[in-house]
Amino acid sequence: DTGVSQNPRHKITKRGQNVTFRCDPISEHNRLYWYRQTLGQGPEFLTYFQNEAQLEKSRLLSDRFSAERPKGSFSTLEIQRTEQGDSAMYLCASSSTGTKNSYEQYFGPGTRLTVT
Amino acid sequence: AQSVTQPDIHITVSEGASLELRCNYSYGATPYLFWYVQSPGQGLQLLLKYFSGDTLVQGIKGFEAEFKRSQSSFNLRKPSVHWSDAAEYFCAVGAGKGFQKLVFGTGTRLLVSP
User: Fold this and answer.
1) Per residue in A19-29, pLDDT tens?
2) Which of the four, A44, A55, A65, B32, has the lowest number of CB atoms within 10 Å?
3) Nearest residue to A43 via CA among B86, B46, B29, B112
């Protein structure tokens, strides 16, 4: 069990640029989640996938944000035309359906985005 | 909508003393409740969860939590705190379809004094 991995761990970008983050879930997990965490706050849900299907999206996920999970394995989160308010830690988590632990989400270390 | 309140932003406990972190939730039915810990530079680690059944749940690292429906609470406890327990602790409730969306509280930062 190698855990959830996220790349890059840190990203500094200029306002207006596009950024893309990658998340690799635990290998047997079919659900994948994205959260955003700002300083002093708890994580906020953005979206989640079951296999390739995006099943729920938060209103926080504006049209500048898009998430994909094309083959039901890794996922990418893209932010277009970044704004300073997008500066946050972006967390990915995964879980497995069909087990007694199916509601347990395992988190990666996060990608810290700084928009200058 | 489901929500979680963690009323204590910071708590300082002496090493070896007992710990209780408070969590109150808002949800009409039986909630799915979780406690996570986040150390600096680390991801969130699941300490324990409550779905149903015994209201006292045991977790990792010697933590336990008690679900009290009458008080809408799910407080986290540890009988003897170690310096390595210093971290940020988050309570969360499952929300949305199939309870897949976790709604987190704002967290409680635990400081451990020698």
Assistant:
1) 999 999 999 89
2) A55
3) B46
